[in-house]
């Protein structure tokens, strides 16, 4: 009956539930538009043997961690925007619920992620295990000896960060990198590099094993990590060789762009590539303080890495020209890449 159908339609449209449903649909569509895929930082190596040079130049175009296609001009605008907003005043994505996660050796340490922990200024709280504190003390002693300063009276993460700032004092980007590189090489027994190369060539087993080890052994320094599958490697195979750091503790506590680029990314890439012969690209995200390790991916030359275009962070106690557009951190090496390049993360 047409009159009955008309009456039912009128009753349904006048129901108070209809506006609520329409509002929910609009909210869902709005959320869908707001959710984006955060870009990640490209990384590279500074000291490379001649035998690797051509391979790295060829791989430079592959060393991008963009989640979606972008033009060179769009990519460059992305770099400038992040460099000019390094204070990290806002969140890059909708709020993420807080949680507590056990991690590191035997899951004895815990990390408490606050609500909206994707925000650059949100801080994760850590409860270090005895094993983590032991590694922290060991590494701190190595740094103190290398730069000839007293070992801290108490072993804390704050004391470790203070040592890292002392490592930077009076040294340029190469000097900062060299201290970390030399400490890492000092951890190996004589001939250890040759043994490693023989046991762990660049194959599926080696890359996945190193990713799994990194998740545990270096957790005391950077916080909780997870191993993911990726085909972003020189083998072009789907491997569990991608280590994702949810929010880097070192970058969070130091707030220093150059400390990350010079003393971690560059030194660690050089160590794995030049000493172990194992390709590694480290891609820090200076916006949300996350980071990604890609084992098996050859990095381009560090001088052409657009991570060098990022500015100082307001959280760093040595920051200069914070939020000044197109002014990179004053402690980074000069950027020699092409303007508008696409090695953006």
What does this structure look like?
By secondary structure, this protein is α+β, with helices and mostly antiparallel strands. The chain is built from twelve helices and seven strands. The protein has helices at about 1-15, 15-35, 50-60, 70-85, 130-145, 155-170, 175-185, 190-200, 205-215, 220, 250-255, 255-275; strands at about 100-105, 110-115, 125, 225-230, 240-245, 280-285, 290-295. The strands form two sheets. Strands 4-5-7-6 form a four-stranded antiparallel sheet. Mean pLDDT is about 75; it is low at about 1-90 and about 340-345.
What's this, in brief?
The chain has twelve helices and seven strands. By secondary structure, it is an alpha+beta fold.
Shape: globular
Annotation, overall tally of beta strands: 7
| Number of discrete helical segments | 12
Taken in chain order, the helices and strands follow as: HHHHEEEHHHHHHEEHHEE
- pLDDT averaged residue by residue: 77
Tell me the strand order in the biggest sheet: 4-5-7-6
Determine the oligomeric state from the structure. Answer: single chain
Structural class: alpha+beta
Q: Work out the strand percent.
A: 5-15%
Runs in which pLDDT lies below 50 for 5 or more consecutive residues are 1-92, 341-345
Distance between the termini: 63 Å
Tell me roughly what share of residues is in helical segments.
Answer: 40-55%
Main beta sheet: 4 strands, antiparallel
Rg for CA atoms? 23 Å
């Amino acid at each position: 009956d047409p009159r009955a159908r008309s009456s039912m339609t009128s009753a349904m449209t006048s129901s108070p539930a209809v506006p609520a449903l329409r509002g929910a649909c609009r909210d869902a569509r709005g959320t869908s538009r707001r959710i984006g895929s955060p870009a990640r930082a490209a990384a590279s190596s500074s000291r490379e043997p001649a035998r690797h040079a051509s391979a790295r130049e060829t791989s430079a175009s592959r060393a991008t961690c963009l989640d979606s296609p972008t033009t060179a001009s769009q990519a460059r605008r992305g770099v400038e925007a992040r460099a000019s907003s390094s204070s990290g005043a806002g969140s890059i994505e909708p709020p993420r619920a807080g949680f507590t996660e056990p991690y590191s050796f035997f899951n004895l340490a815990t990390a408490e992620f606050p609500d909206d922990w994707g925000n650059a200024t949100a801080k994760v709280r850590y409860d270090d295990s005895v094993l983590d504190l032991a590694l922290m003390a060991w590494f701190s002693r190595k740094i103190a000896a290398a730069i000839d300063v007293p070992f801290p009276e108490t072993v804390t993460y704050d004391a470790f960060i203070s040592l890292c700032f002392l490592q930077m004092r009076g040294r340029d980007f190469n000097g900062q990198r060299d201290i970390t590189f030399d400490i890492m090489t000092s951890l190996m027994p004589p001939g250890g590099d040759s043994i490693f190369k023989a046991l762990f060539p660049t194959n599926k087993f080696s890359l996945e094993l190193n990713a799994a080890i990194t998740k545990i052994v270096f957790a005391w320094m950077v916080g909780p990590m997870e191993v993911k599958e990726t085909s972003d490697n020189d083998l072009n195979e789907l491997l569990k060789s991608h280590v994702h750091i949810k929010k880097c503790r070192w970058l969070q506590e130091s707030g220093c762009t150059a400390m990350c680029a010079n003393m971690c990314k560059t030194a660690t890439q050089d160590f794995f590539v030049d000493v172990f012969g194992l390709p590694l690209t480290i891609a820090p995200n200076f916006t949300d303080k996350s980071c990604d390790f890609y084992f098996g991916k050859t990095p381009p030359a560090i001088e052409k890495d657009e991570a060098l275009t990022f500015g100082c962070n307001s959280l760093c106690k040595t920051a200069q020209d914070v939020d000044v557009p197109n002014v990179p951190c004053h402690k980074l090496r000069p950027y020699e890449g092409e303007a508008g390049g696409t090695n953006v993360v």
